[in-house]
Amino acid sequence: MAVPKKKTSKSRRDMRRSHDALTRVTSVGCANCGAPRLPHHVCPSCGWYKNQQIVVKKEKSEEFSED
After folding, report:
1. Under the phi-then-psi rule, with left for phi > 0, alpha for psi from -120 to 50, and beta for the rest, what region is 47?
2. Strand runs labelled E in 18-67
3. How many structural domains is the chain composed of?
4. Is residue 7 part of a domain?
5. Helices in 1-67 by DSSP H: which ranges?
6. Does residue 42 belong to any structural domain of this protein?
7. pLDDT score recorded for residue 60
């Protein structure tokens, strides 16, 4: 079994972990409704992408109507 001969210093340990930090998720505003969305993705709130409506969204009142 491999056992280290010397203690790993805090500096060396932290330098090794320098690439493990989390990155912030980038978001842009939708050109149609202004809601935040991921770049190169269809807007989840209105369904538009590159000035075209890709997904037709239903209104909330239509989804839960009991008629």
Report:
1. left
2. 28-29, 36-37, 48-49, 52-53
3. 1
4. no
5. 10-16, 60-63
6. yes
7. 66
Residue 33, domain member (yes or no): yes
Q: For residue 10, what are its two tokens?
A: 């805090």
The predicted structure's pLDDT at residue 14: 96
Range of the domain at 28: 24-58
Residue 6 in any domain: the answer is: no
Reported as a single tens digit per residue, the pLDDT across 11-63 is: 999 999 999 999 999 999 998 899 999 999 999 988 999 888 888 877 766 55
Question: Cβ(33)–Cβ(46) under 8 Å?
Answer: yes
The Cα 57–Cα 45 span in angstroms is 8
Distance CA 1, CA 3 (A): 6
